[in-house]
Write a structure and sequence with these properties.
The chain is mainly alpha-helical. The protein has a single domain, classed as Non-ribosomal Peptide Synthetase Peptidyl Carrier Protein, Chain A (Orthogonal Bundle). Helices cover 50% and strands 0% of the residues. It contains 5 helices and no strands. The chain is globular.
Length: 98
């Protein structure tokens, strides 16, 4: 059975930011920032995952909480952008947005 975008995003977050502790994972709609699951450094890893594993380009202007603050927001962003060539965002933009 294929994993959905939500499943892949949740699995990435649990593995990389919660070190496999799935009990600490919040609901798909919950803020990853407010729940201290991700910070500005983690956003860079998340962007790399979106670009490399989900094949969705992320522009500097896309690196905002509205697109990356919850599993639901990330899945919506991925669905809206669809697949395409990866373009790495500017790390300085991440610290300003987050």
């Amino acid at each position: 059975m294929d994993m959905t975008a939500h499943d892949r995003i949740r699995a990435f977050i649990i593995e990389n930011f919660l070190f496999g502790d799935s009990d600490s994972m919040v609901e798909n709609s919950a803020s990853l920032i407010d729940n201290e699951i991700i910070d500005s450094t983690a956003v860079l890893e998340l962007v790399a995952f979106i670009e490399e594993s989900l094949s969705v380009p992320v522009a500097d202007s896309d690196i905002v909480p509205a697109n990356l603050d919850s599993v639901d927001a990330i899945a919506r962003f991925v669905a809206e952008r669809g697949a395409g060539p990866a373009t790495r965002g500017n790390p300085e933009c991440v610290s300003r947005a987050f």
